[in-house]
Amino acid sequence: MRVNNNVAMMATFSLLALSVSAAFAAEKPQTGGTLTWGVEVEPSPLNPQLNGQDKAELILRAAYESLLARNADGSYVPWLAESYKVEDEGKRITFTLRKGVKFTDGVPFNAAAVAENFRRIQDPAYAAGTSLYALGSHLASVETPDEQHVVLNLKEVYTPFLSFAAGLKLISPKSWESPTVKAGGAEVAGTGPFILQRYEKGQQIVFKKNPDYNWAPANAGRQGPAYLDGVTYRFLPESSVRTGALLSGQVDLIEGISGNDAGEFKDNPDFDYRHALNTGTPYSLFLNVEYGPTREQKVRQALLQGLDIDGILKSIYRGERTRTWGITSPIDPLYDKGLEGKYGNNPTLGNKLLDEAGWTQRDADGFRTREGKRLTIDIVQAQATVRDQRGVLLQALQAQARQRLGVDLNIRYVDSGTYVELRNSGQFGSIANSNTPTDGIDIENHYLPVKAGGAINYSRTSAPEILPLLKAASTTLDEAKKRESYAQLQQFVILDQAVAVPLYEPEDQIASAKYVHGVGFRAFKQLPENAWGVWLSKH
């Protein structure tokens, strides 16, 4: 039987055309469907202004938005504000608000609503104990010359304030009528592409599409509502459980993937895998200079010098995490590379420092003692921020401190209430934590003396050398001078004072099924972006 070559060729071209057409169709965003996202951390509280969990940003940004967004280089672009103006050497900031925006409870988004948000953060009954209140203390007054303009007047030049003001998640003024506003929830309305519909504690949080949404940031690439009808975030704190849920099809994508599990998705044709470093403060052991053995500089320096952080990280994370040396992220413009390789993995020096400090005896368990008292340092870890195999990391540090230095690291996992009590009382040896704020805000929060407003000064340092450096950095508009001040600060607090032992820079990882499209990271902080741009090629 002879085959007509022209017919065969036409059939082949038809099949190719169908394939190409299908490929192009798959690339065109489709609307509809719901997404299930397995997440590592449950927000506590749900109030977007009072929540301090970096991992909760992914969830909270679904419903709550800010005045400006950021490009990768840190520059600002319009969002809920269409423009801004900085005057009087930074002491006066005027935002021109976008028209046509409304909160999801129907309250108009206008100057009065924005002003109320800024006034509330100055109220210690609302924001006491948070960095919001500390930053709000720089605000002298708020003006609303008309419905479209908000003017913030500062008490003095404070250059990080623009970053804070631009990024504050705004909520409807009606939210403060709720007795549960501080806890957050469905009664606290935002302007976001999704509306918080239902929260099941310990299980999941459910959002539905905001059909009126049409005010995405200027760098978002499009306008209009989300493609999805809704998104559900399931709380799956164990990495292995999240991995199993994605592999078995119980969820569509997950975030927070352990070093051990990354290989399940990296070269798997059924999934996409992405990761990005965060900004802000590395996960570190902050050593309390006012309590217990860490009051002694040589004890702190012994930990900094004697531990092998590289070895521990490689063992636990299989090369999937980034070692840090300073007090801010390697991707932060304020990072000081001069600290790299300057300390650590020197147990000989560490033991010499402890001997010089008088911890020369050993008890039956091999721990150092002095005058019959064991060298024990309590490490406090908030249960709410236990993630990314940090429990395993702390255990490895505990074992190494004992073997190399004879130091007893006593790890304490505490609930949120106990954590706040311990932090306020100063009755701890070390707190382990990380944060993502940029523009020097996080540095100041960690190292500004507690009495001067250091909201999360876990080391409780008040060394007189620190305040002038922070002041110089926060009052100059010269970026070179700012970097110089922060570089001096980092050298001082790490190499000289050893008030922190930097461990690794947190990053975010996302693994998704191939039918999930549009997943990515925020341009600047590189946290996972919300689900507004996500779409499914199968429903």
Your description of this structure?
The chain has 539 residues and is an alpha+beta fold. It has a seven-stranded mixed β-sheet, with helices on one face. It has a six-stranded mixed β-sheet with strand order 14-21-13-20-18-19. The chain starts with a helix and ends with a strand.
Topology:
Layout (H helix, E strand, L loop, with lengths): L4 H23 L6 E6 L17 H4 L7 E3 L5 E3 L2 E7 L4 E6 L13 H10 L3 H4 L3 H6 L2 E8 L2 E6 L6 H7 L26 E7 L3 E6 L20 E6 L3 H9 L5 E3 L7 H4 L4 E7 L3 E7 L9 H10 L2 H9 L4 E2 L23 H10 L4 E2 L5 E3 L2 E2 L1 E7 L7 H16 L2 E7 L1 H10 L4 E6 L5 H7 L18 H9 L4 H18 L3 E6 L1 E7 L2 E2 L17 E2 L3
Parallel strand pairs: 1-10, 1-11, 18-19, 18-20
Antiparallel strand pairs: 2-3, 4-5, 5-7, 6-7, 8-9, 9-10, 11-22, 12-22, 13-20, 13-21, 14-21, 15-16, 16-17, 23-24
Helix pairs in contact: 9-11, 10-12, 15-16
